[in-house]
Amino acid sequence: MTVPTTGRRERKKAATRQKIADTALRLFLERGYDAVGIRDVAAEADVAVTTLFSHFASKEALVFEQDEDFEQRLTQAVVGRGPREPLIPALRREIQAMVRHCTGDGAAPVYRMIDASRALREYEESMRLRHAESLARALVADPDLAQSATACRTIARFVVDAYALAREAADPDAALDEIFQMIEAAWEVTRPSR
Q1: Do the beta carbons of residue 174 and residue 186 sit within 8 Å?
Q2: CB 79: neighbour CB atoms within 10 A?
Q3: 0.70 surpassed by pTM
Q4: Residue-wise pLDDT tens for the chain (194 aa)?
Q5: Which of 32, 39, 65, 115 is most buried by a 10 A CB count?
Q6: Burial class (CB in 10 A: 0-12, 13-18, 19+), 143
């Protein structure tokens, strides 16, 4: 089986999107989120405002440019796991990778900016709710899982909240260990009796 390669157009589109996101983040961190407008970002990135909006739906989305990637990674942790691979460890690995990405070098100023902006905090919260719903749909659709839709939605919320809690913890790995012990216990409780 051959792996499809990305065409020139897709590569250019991805490069433009990344350039816009990088420019926006740099400007936001230099000048402050509220002091920078969409037109400022477009001008600095040397793109039209319409081009910016073809890549990002809002100013807030510029800060969370990996939003869709994170959502896909969460659902892929469910649908892409092996036939006998347990669910909760697969989700934990993905959340741990996401936390490591978001707590790496240079992340602290970004999260200080998010914490200081009501618009960004609200956007992040709506993004987390959307990620939890997407994850819940993947859980409900998995034929190997026998839990109810309510249990799947609850666990999905716990998993997405685990990301936020661990990201803010002094020791993210220890926080994930503690949180995922609780998630594993909650998941086991919801298993139908056999």
Answers
A1: no
A2: 10
A3: yes
A4: 445 567 888 889 989 999 999 999 999 999 999 999 999 999 999 999 999 999 999 999 999 988 888 899 999 999 998 888 899 999 999 999 989 888 877 788 888 899 899 999 999 999 999 999 999 999 999 988 888 999 999 999 999 999 989 988 999 999 999 999 999 999 988 877 65
A5: 65
A6: exposed
